[in-house]
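Quick log. Single chain, no ligands specified.
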Amino acid sequence: MKKIITFLFAVAVALPGFSAIERPKLVVGLVVDQMRWDYLYYYYDQFQDGGLRRLVDDGYSFENTMINYLPTVTAIGHSSIYTGSVPALTGIAGNNFWKDGRRTYCCADTTVVSVGSKSREGQMSPRNLIATGIGDMLKIATDYKAKVFGVALKDRAAIFPAGHSADAAYWWDTSAGHFVSSTYYMNELPKWVKATNKEIGVKPGTDVKTSVQGVTKTFQMAEAVLNNEHLGEDGVTDLLAISVSSTDAIGHAFGTRGNENHDVYMELDRQLAHFLQLLDQKVGRGNYLLFLSADHGASHNPNVLKAHKMPAGGLETWNSWKPLQERLSRELGITGHVIKDEDAGRIYLDHALIEKSGKTLDDVKAAVIKMLEQDDNILYVVDYDKVLTTSVPQPIRERIVNGYNKKRSGDLFYVAKAGWENVSNSPDYVGTTHGQWNPYDSHIPFVLLGWNVQHGQTSEPTYIVDIAPTVCEMLHIQMPNSCVGNARRVRAER
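-> predicted structure:
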């Protein structure tokens, strides 16, 4: 009888309907902060064979991947990549937003405390994110046996990709000079993290985020997680979410061209080549799935563009708010500041003050819109509540709607002329920023490498929200609960 049962079990396992689901041993998500899609090709000749060039030469690239919401900023990008969703549904409306009447940092959480330092840098968690991510769905699919970790210099870049049920997220505390976490994940840093911090830590207060050193330390920590948590070493698929933040800090400070940007991408290439070699050795070439993307791009420096006769400039909205406030107070007869905040194109009005003054919210909105649209460098100022009936090109209108979270995004949103960002208009300005709908801000890489991926590329329209469902479909797990993207087919090159 025992032999018969054994035989029947063997037959059942052998049948297609009973075969084990094939998955990679490890999924690695790599988000490069502020990486424009064209960097894959601008620096291609300088990349080494085993790093970013390997992704281009061996991977599958979705060449036409765009961000389909506004504004295009870090916290939204990282959360959207892993949730397959947009700010309207995730609750992450920006790096900062208003929540319950208070200006809130995206992952701030006063109910937790820092682990690994005495500063407030560790008072962070994913609780403001009201959607699940790839890591959460992988946990559910494996009965919570999968191990999920996030690593980045920026807290938001480690926390949101890791998701709610992650084993841990680690980010850099400049005041401590090493990686920290919070009591959301643990009460004490593991011994191996303490040892790693001792090895790679720097003098407290030293800024590594605006240095190529930041790239190196990010990958050193990622390697430490891989080794010490034994990722990809058993029969359950694990997830390691890595984000490189120094590329963004250096881009903001020095622009999208020049030695500084070149050097940070060459270091990224070196570190990625080393990390891929390590994955090949420990997990096995073809046994892991890696995807590369970015949270947003960046515009070229306006002074450089103007020097080559291209239209560009800095909005410098910070110089506009005081006279605008004074004009509003004068024309509407309101004592006080009607505009309580502006962030990444979103304008927050003081509803309590407006009500107290006896004015209607619609009247105040109309006055603000009329005044702002007098700026020749602002194309549109949109009332979020009336965006569907506003004369804005449909593709931009859709992005505004996708980016509007009714409880957190404010009242108005402005769209600037192409080439114009909210930066200094000084001829000495050398940096850059992002946030608008234009391709330089919204065209991002999306490349798959490794498990069940053959070389190829497609120019079919793809969106940042398609990344999560594509990865989930490849893993045969359900997509996150607020996902609005579509799984994209990975086709072999003909």
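The domain at 25-297+444-475 is CATH 3.40.720.10 (Alkaline Phosphatase, subunit A).
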